Amino acid sequence: MTVAKRNKREKPDAELVKLADSLLANYQKPEDLIGENGLLKQLTKMLVERALETEMSEHLGHGKSETVTNATGNTRNGHSAKTLQGEFGELPLNIPRDRQGSFEPKLVERHQTRWTGFDDKIISLYARGLSVREIQGHLEEMYGTEVSPTLISAVTDAVSDEVKVWQARALDALYPIVYLDCIHVKVRDSGAVRTKAVYLAIGVNMAGHKEVLGLWIAQTEGAKFWLQVVTELKTRGVQDIFIACVDGLKGFPEAIEAVYPKAAVQLCIVHMVRNSLNFVPWKMQQEVAADLKTIYTSSTVELAEQMLGAFEARWDKDYPSIGQSWRRNWARVIPFFDYPPEIRKVIYTTDEIDKPLPDIFMRLAFPATPVVPRVCWDAPASISRTAVDRCARPARQRPVPGRVRSSGCKLQPILCASRVVQACRIAAPGRAACVRSGLDDPRRTAHCA
């Protein structure tokens, strides 16, 4: 049945096949099709101009050489020349005009000089780390069109307005999980390359989707600036956070609790392990890491504390700083033990921050500080133009022995972000009255407001 549907869907129209055969009757080499004066470019020009003529006929209410039927007596008034830049290089077009100048074409708008999507290609190349001159050379090589550096700068600068609107947008009242972390990027500043901090906040909303809440630029990472970040989230509408996942920066948890006193602050276990291994020689790191794993993979807090005691008994003589660090931060390490294993996998690390910004780490240096927020906005857009409301990546869950699947289920059960949020809402301490109510229950609205 599936094969039959696929074949039916892929069957081309007979008339289109005949048309294609007639157009390709004189085809001999690729340049005849995709070259500077190839068939595709000529066909595109013809179709666009015919479509514009059709738009003009609809605007006037009568076709070419037909009787004028509109009340104003408006008629055609020749054509104006325009050259569009796009994937086929430069495409000269004849745009129809009317005598009253009221015609507004939809396919090729007034003052438009580039095909829709051409700007996106420039932004995509810029987000991948190409300089203005490299973008200029790439477009000329690939599409045979010369683009001025001024145009490229104008296109990338236009994103700044989108960034400002996005950065100030209103946020949801409640986020079950929020990741807060800082990455460092190199920026050319006054002729020198300097390292600057990019503060990032990524939340998992009630629909189970990851959402970049905002990004901020500063000279260095510090708890005081994080307090400003969290305060801004509050002013933009975030009234409550269930779980805040952070690194081990001193004063960071206190900054969050000052704004969201009910939030559970979870230190990043990955950061804790990495910092612990800094005290250990390379040859011993694998063994020490294995013993640390017994702590954070324990089933309960009590068992985890026993494993920590066993770790200290074995390693304190050689590496006392590791045990001291875990003891000192123990209150911030253990919150994730209050949740089921599905939630623990999601909140035990802030490495989710790295996933939406893969291109950031590919750059040697940004050309200037104002460029950083634009590229942070554009980097996730190398595949999709938005970094907001990206769906959380599903994590495959192993089948549980003895679990009965429904009759319509043919795949292994998976753990999606939406289920994680549902479990989080149920398991969140102190929120049982709200999370157990229905989606339309006024108690939920009152709590979330």
UniProtKB/TrEMBL annotation:
InterPro entries: Transposase_mutator. The keyword Transmembrane helix does not apply. The keyword DNA-binding applies. It holds the Pfam family Transposase_mut. Keywords: DNA recombination, DNA-binding, Transposable element, Transposition. Required for the transposition of the insertion element. This is Mutator family transposase.
